[in-house]
Every structure is written in C-alpha cells, then in structure tokens.
Amino acid sequence: MESNPPPPPSAPSSSGRPRIAVLDANRTVAQRVGRVLRAASGLSDVIVEADPATLRASLDDDPILLACDATDIDVAMDWAARRYRSMAVVAWSSGDMEPLLAAARENPGLVSVLGWPSFASMPRPWELAMATRRVVDADAPSPRLGELFPWGSALARFRPRSSAERDAAVAEVGRLAERAGASPRISQRVSEVAHEMLMNAMYDAPVDESGYARYAHDRKQDLELEDHEVPTFRLASDGINVALQVVDPFGGLRRRHVLDGIARGRAVATSEGAALDTSNGGAGLGIYRIYSQSTVLVTDVDPGRFTSVTAFFDLDVNPREARTLPVSLHLFERPRPA
C-alpha cells in the first residue's frame, strides 16, 4: 500500500464549476501554482484568474480552496468571511509577512502564509502541495517528517524522556546538521530551535486527566516523563534543507497560541512591546524563536491527540540573509471532538 496515496478528486459540484482557484495578476506564476494545486488535489479542476470579478463568476458556490498573492488578501479574506465561509485560503508574499499574519489572526480560514524567497521563481511547490493536500483531504493522516522529503534523505529519530536525554538529543541534532552540510552558525540555530521545540513538548504539553499542566510551572526542573508523555523528535535532511519535527501526544497547541506568540515576539523584537505570556499553553516567546529562526514552520494539531511542530532550515541561506527573508507559517488544526 502506498504510504502517501493521492486524494480522490473532489466531488463534482452541482454547478459543474471548479472548487479550487488561484488568484494572481502574474499569469506565469498563477499557472505554475495552478498545476501544483491540481496535482495535489487528485487532478481536480483548478481555475486560474487575475481578476477577482472574473474568478468569482467562474467559481463554484461552495469552493474548497483559494490560493492568492498577498496583494489580493483583502479580497480573499472578505470572501472567506462573508461569501464562502467554508473556503480555506493559502496566500504568499515575498515581502513583509505582517499583513498576512494579521489576516490569519482575524480569520481562521487563512491556513497557510507562504514566504516566497526573492531568489525563487514561485512559492515553494512542496509547500503549496502540502497545504492543498491538507485542505482537500482533511481526514488523511498527518505526514511524518520523512514524507516531506525526497526518497533517500537522511533521517534520525529520538524519544527523549528526561532532561539529560533532551540535552543529548539536541547535541546530536547539532552534529547531524553539520554532517548534512550546515555551517557552524546554521547548526547552532538548528540546535537552539531543537532545544526550544523539546522544551515545549516536554514541559508545556503534558497535562493531567483534568487538563492541568504537569511541568510547565517550572521549566528549570529536571524531568523524567512517564511513558505516555514521551514526545517523538525527528531530524531529516536532503542536503538542501534540514528539518526538525516534534510530536507530543497531547494536542494542546492552538493556532491562537502560535499567532499570538509570534505577534508578541515581533513586538519585542521591534521594541513595540515586551509582554511575555507565561501561562500554560501560551508558548511565551518560544514559538517566536522557532518561527524567526526557521525557513518554514508547520503546526498540525489534532486536539487531545497530538501536536506536531515542524521547522525547516535552508542550508544555502546564511543566517544573516535568512533574517531578511519571509518565513512561511502553516496552521493546520483538525476540528475538536464533540
């Protein structure tokens, strides 16, 4: 059986019009994005347009997904809020990500904001495909880290249950990143993010039967997790990227925690504020540290079952240049159980 089978094409609408669309004035980019969305959605029909009015006239009354450039985000958010309430939105930008992050805080329909590197000819195809598949086939299992990399990539897996094992995993991740071709500075960034990811998964995530945090009150204490609390931590590299993924078995992270944490971190970084949320689940500034040092950040949550956080690093971009590039953020959250 295929580990990553394609989703079935979306059910034909009664109108016969497409339910997936791309809105971008750059025709070449729009056509390329449209091909990726078509492939990732099981070869469903995808409409590509530059004009919102023309697109709206050709789109089904119950669309699934709209992908657009940041210049059209106001139109997309208005449609998602008023006209097509069940439609997910994916948007990209090669500039400041603040407008897209602000839009995501206002409307949960915006599930992915893609940072488009200035040296690339289009948003990263694998990100577009991942976001499309996650929207079109929402019940499909979340991909493990290795499934986001080409076959033959290097993989490593850790199951740290104690503070000492956490530190050993972080040290090994730094060594593996260097062996994968990362510069010492990039390896240091990878190690710092690995430490923050494991701190969140081992201290902040575990809760008792009543939903109260077990260890978040003291992140400096030595820890020995119980068997059912142990997270799974992975590293993967294809020689171009290194990525880290941590999965905890609690599913307590929410998109508001991620977006609020990033907003606080950006405010602190620009001296616009210094509010630090240390409440349970708020993630403090930790999620901002992960986001700001990554190329792509993916959160995938099944409430009460698991939280998956994945961070990518581009080995060809030095840390100084990386600070100027837009960072992608994907926020996937399954509906809460009734």
Can you walk me through this structure?
- The structure is a single chain.
- This protein is of the alpha/beta class and 338 residues long.
- Helix 1 packs across helix 5, helix 6 (163-179) runs antiparallel to helix 7 and helix 8 (255-269) packs across helix 9.
- The protein is built from ten helices and eleven strands.
- The protein is globular.
- Helix content is 35%, strand content 20%.
- The protein folds into two domains: 20-136, Rossmann fold (3-Layer(aba) Sandwich), CATH 3.40.50; 145-333, Histidine kinase-like ATPase, C-terminal domain (Heat Shock Protein 90, 2-Layer Sandwich).
- It has an eleven-stranded mixed beta sheet with strand order 2-1-3-4-5-11-9-10-8-7-6, sandwiched between helices.
Descriptive tags:
338 residues; alpha/beta; Rossmann fold; Heat Shock Protein 90; 10 helices
What is this structure, in a nutshell?
The chain has 338 residues and is of the alpha/beta class. The chain is built from ten helices and eleven strands. Helix content is 35%, strand content 20%.
What is the fold's blueprint, element by element?
Layout: E1 20-23, H1 27-40, E2 46-49, H2 52-58, E3 65-69, H3 73-83, E4 88-93, H4 98-106, E5 110-115, H5 125-136, E6 154-158, H6 163-179, H7 184-204, E7 232-237, E8 241-248, H8 255-269, H9 286-292, E9 296-302, E10 306-314, H10 319-322, E11 328-333
Parallel strand pairs: 1-2, 1-3, 3-4, 4-5, 9-11
Antiparallel strand pairs: 5-11, 6-7, 7-8, 8-10, 9-10
